[in-house]
Amino acid sequence: MSYKTILTILQNLEDCDRVLDTALHLNRQLGSHLIGLHAESGVSVSYAAPIEIPDVTAFKLDQHDVEERMDDISKRFSAKCARENISWEWRPIRSLSGDSALSALSSARCSDLVIVGQQPPEHHTTNGDIETLLLESGRPVLFVPYITDAPRTISHAVVAWNGSREAARATFDAMPFLMAAQSVEILCVDPEDNVEQSKAVAGAEIAATLTRHGVKVTARTEVTDGLPTAAAIENRMSDTGADLLVMGALGRKKLTEYFFGGVTRTILNSMPSLTFMSR
Question: HEC states along the chain?
Answer without folding.
Answer: CCCCEEEEECCCHHHHHHHHHHHHHHHHHHCCEEEEEEEEECCCCCCECCCCCECHHHHHHHHHHHHHHHHHHHHHHHHHHHHHCCCEEEEEEEECCCCHHHHCHHHHCCCCEEEEECCCHHHCCCCHHHHHHHHHHCCCEEEECCCCCCCCCCCEEEEECCCCHHHHHHHHHCHHHHHHCCEEEEEEECCCCCCCCCHHHCCHHHHHHHHHCCCCEEEEEECCCCCCHHHHHHHHHHHHCCCEEEEECCEEEECCEEEECHHHHHHHHHCCCEEEEEC
